[in-house]
Amino acid sequence: MKITATKENLLLGVSAVQKAVSTKTTLQILTCIKLEVQKDKLYFSATDLEIGIQCHVPIEVMEEGATVVPAKYFFEIVRKLPDSLITLETVNENELVIKYENSQLNFKTLPADDFPELPDIDSEYELTITAAELKQMIRQIVFACSTDERRPLFTGVLCEVENDNFRMISTDTHRLALKQGKIETKAAKLLSFIIPAKILSELARLVQNDEEICYINISKNLATFLLDNILVVCRLLEGQFPNYRQVVPTQYNLKIKTKTKLLSEAVERISLFSADNNTNTVKMKIEGSLLTIFSQSELGQGYEQIEIKSDGEPVEIALNYRYLLDVFKVIDDEFLTIEFTGSLSPGIIRPLDNDNFLYLILPVRS
Amino acid sequence: MKITATKENLLLGVSAVQKAVSTKTTLQILTCIKLEVQKDKLYFSATDLEIGIQCHVPIEVMEEGATVVPAKYFFEIVRKLPDSLITLETVNENELVIKYENSQLNFKTLPADDFPELPDIDSEYELTITAAELKQMIRQIVFACSTDERRPLFTGVLCEVENDNFRMISTDTHRLALKQGKIETKAAKLLSFIIPAKILSELARLVQNDEEICYINISKNLATFLLDNILVVCRLLEGQFPNYRQVVPTQYNLKIKTKTKLLSEAVERISLFSADNNTNTVKMKIEGSLLTIFSQSELGQGYEQIEIKSDGEPVEIALNYRYLLDVFKVIDDEFLTIEFTGSLSPGIIRPLDNDNFLYLILPVRS
């Protein structure tokens, strides 16, 4: 292969695929990136066999071909290149020569044929969604997943497609987030699948333009996501996700409405006394239009009081402050509501006047 | 004590003293901050017995007094306070009550009398320097100090005062930096002392306003630095600093002039091949008006060529690229010069037309 490219485009390609590069493997080739020239494009590919990412950028081609370079060092050098035209050329079977200005770097390479192929997707794309919608869904969902690899199912996000509705559900068994989005093209059939949360996070990061469309394809055990110039392939998680419909209460004894920011800042301050008390617990007490947040530890104790709108019976409940702060970060609405049934029942947090998101949080028994 | 203060002023005080708080001690009180109200000011003090920092901020006083609070948690809570007026009041001998809006936090405290006093400085301030000048000197010097605590002398900066000249010298025995500054008021006598580099770094960070004046006092084993509202006290390092005058060559066989940024970027790229070769070495070859930077490792090899102005005999020399990049970061001038005597002799780097700074770097024997 022999091409010229801008630094900007090389950097775009090499950055896009980094997260698919294996960092814990004994197979050297999985720590590498494959570069492949086809027509007027350079394709960057990386895979750790769990996830594969491919990104293509425009270049000027003198000669087609392919090679494999060490991901870490190639990324570092591309970042440091000057903003000028860069020539890449393979020589001597196992070298890539990078030329710019009065300079030349020769990199040792591996044979392109040894690089694992990304799986072919044979079926049609089954649904499409705007990148903006997908990003927002992912942001409001992935934080509630578990990171405990011993229970892999909960490190994934349950996705359900029904007509033009796209639902994502995540839970670590202490809390649950549910987000309802709209897809652009209807799915032919009801779909249900589980995607690893870290792959969704990476997908959200790869979106360069909120206007682009994401094409999603689901086969028996693979999902692919196609953006303008990026393809992400990953394995689905297998298993039976708990029935979230049974968990979410349909009634409540008390509903309060408050400013998201006020509540978030109050919990953040009071939680200082919770971080030291091992249980990560803050207590909330609601009586009439007064919400009191309280905590104590060896350091001392503190309370904050917020004026709220409320409707229902008084309640006192102990909650994990981390689970509260997590959800406050992803609610962009000025106001939120919380529904309570009692001290030992879950609370349901929703943005005000917005049915597309809900967050269930279990109380701490004290 | 009972006072009201703005969040901004509390944060200023508590941030200023953090670096003097002990992080590795069994003495609980050294992990704390002393708060003391005198006249219309709140004094924050912290010390780990090596360094002491005191900062005062304006407040409204209802009652004088003093108390001692845990540094880490007090800092965290102050950072999170709302931008409103905050009341601090000591109650029950061992509690500090923080009130704001509809909220109240009670912190456990320790007795103020148990807090170690910062040492009294009895003599007059011996020299003054503008904060801007001091900051710039520190920036160009501390990076060349050693961080190896087994040789504590080289973790310090040698300071020499002679008339209105203030020199700082640092070395880790592989390279040496020398900076010449101007003081505002002449010293009565020739002074020579060694200050721990980390204390100078902290001092530079504490300067809030380049226009302020720093008053420096040196006693037998202590140095104090007084800024507008901040006092820093530290122990001097003891020992015989090597005679730097003997080390710096007075002649050279080759002198080159080049753009700082060009050379810096070239070394940064080529060093990619050095980071992997264990020796951190790049080779420089100068012939006529061409400077070639070269390196190789298992990854491959690379060179860059830069047009330079040069005067003298050709040279080829191996240098530690980290020591080069370090100094390029603190040279703000567009051009720099390097003087060489041979492959086995030190190189001397200076900003062009600026005698106030020099940097000596020993070659790597290969």
Short description:
By secondary structure, chain A is an alpha+beta fold. Chain A has helices spanning 7-17, 71-80, 131-141, 197-206, 244-247, 260-270, 321-330, and strands spanning 2-6, 32-38, 41-47, 51-58, 60-63, 65-70, 85-91, 95-100, 103-108, 127-130, 156-162, 165-171, 175-182, 191-196, 213-218, 222-226, 230-235, 254-259, 281-287, 290-297, 300-307, 309-312, 315-320, 335-340, 347-351, 357-361. The first copy, chain A, has 3 domains: 2-114, DNA Polymerase III, subunit A, domain 2 (DNA Polymerase III, Chain A, domain 2, Roll), CATH 3.10.150; 127-239, DNA Polymerase III, Chain A, domain 2 (Roll), CATH 3.10.150.10; 248-361, Roll (DNA Polymerase III, Chain A, domain 2).
Q: Mind explaining what this structure looks like?
A:
The structure is a homodimer of 366-residue chains. By secondary structure, chain A is an alpha+beta fold. Chain A has three domains: 2-114, Roll (DNA Polymerase III, Chain A, domain 2); 127-239, DNA Polymerase III, Chain A, domain 2; 248-361, DNA Polymerase III, Chain A, domain 2 (Roll), CATH 3.10.150. Chain A contains seven helices and 26 strands. Chain A has helices at 7-17, 71-80, 131-141, 197-206, 244-247, 260-270, 321-330; strands spanning 2-6, 32-38, 41-47, 51-58, 60-63, 65-70, 85-91, 95-100, 103-108, 127-130, 156-162, 165-171, 175-182, 191-196, 213-218, 222-226, 230-235, 254-259, 281-287, 290-297, 300-307, 309-312, 315-320, 335-340, 347-351, 357-361. In chain A, the strands form four sheets. The first copy, chain A, has a nine-stranded antiparallel β-sheet with strand order 14-11-12-13-26-25-24-18-22. In chain A, helix 3 runs antiparallel to helix 4 and helix 6 runs antiparallel to helix 7. The longest helix of chain A is centred in the N-terminal third of the chain and has 11 residues, at 7-17. The N and C termini of chain A lie far apart (67 Å). The A-B interface holds A 70, 73, 76-77, 80-82, 95, 98, 101-108, 265-266, 268-269, 272-273, 276, 298-306 and B 70, 73, 76-77, 80-82, 95, 98, 101-108, 265-266, 268-269, 272-273, 276, 298-306.
